[in-house]
Amino acid sequence: MRFMMLMIPLGYESAPPDVKLDPERVAAMMRYNEALKEAGVLITLEGLHPPSMGARVSFPGGKPVVTDGPFAEAKEVLGGFWMIEVGSRDEAVAWAKQCPASENEIIEIRQVQEMADFSDDVQQALAGFADLPHAGRA
């Protein structure tokens, strides 16, 4: 089973574009990342720049509208993610609990949809999905 662990750093929604990282916290996080890798559960991981550097595309009335960050209505935003492959939701939770997160960080755990999760008609509509880059497994 694949799970995405989403890092939600509270306050990151208002971080400036040049936000500075604490080298000690980065080193602690790298030790955690290495533990995931050494255990053979890590698929990929990435950090994200703050919303002040991003954009959102919404579709009011079916027409695309671009809004540059930061986003006033944002309460929680993603700071990064890990994609892991483990045997159960409980195992994913156990890995998240080992993260050296601070008191202002939350990790949300979401299982990745697999082809077998869908009905036959939805699987037919998804024909060719497995051929896309980084697509889910059949």
Give a brief outline of the structure.
With 138 residues, this protein is of the alpha+beta class. It has helices at 23-38, 89-97, 120-125; strands at residues 2-9, 42-47, 55-58, 65-68, 80-85, 105-111. The two termini are 12 Å apart.
Largest sheet: 4 strands, antiparallel
Q: Within the largest sheet, what's the order of strands?
A: 2-5-1-6
Q: Distance between termini? A: 12 Å
Structural class: alpha+beta
Work out the radius of gyration: 18 Å
Number of helices: 3
Strand proportion: 25-35%
Shape: flat
Estimated helix fraction: 10-25%
Subunit organisation of the chains? single chain
List low-confidence stretches. none
Mean pLDDT: 91
Secondary structure tally: strands: 6
SSE order, one letter for each helix or strand? EHEEEEHEH
Topology:
Blueprint: E1 2-9, H1 23-38, E2 42-47, E3 55-58, E4 65-68, E5 80-85, H2 89-97, E6 105-111, H3 120-125
Antiparallel strand pairs: 1-5, 1-6, 2-5, 3-4
What does this structure look like?
The chain has a four-stranded antiparallel β-sheet, with helices on one face. The two termini are 12 Å apart. The radius of gyration is 18 Å and the shape is flat. With 138 residues, it is α+β, with helices and mostly antiparallel strands. Helices cover 22% and strands 25% of the residues. Strand 3 (55-58) and strand 4 (65-68) form a beta hairpin. The longest helix is centred in the first third of the chain and has 16 residues, at 23-38. It is built from three helices and six strands.
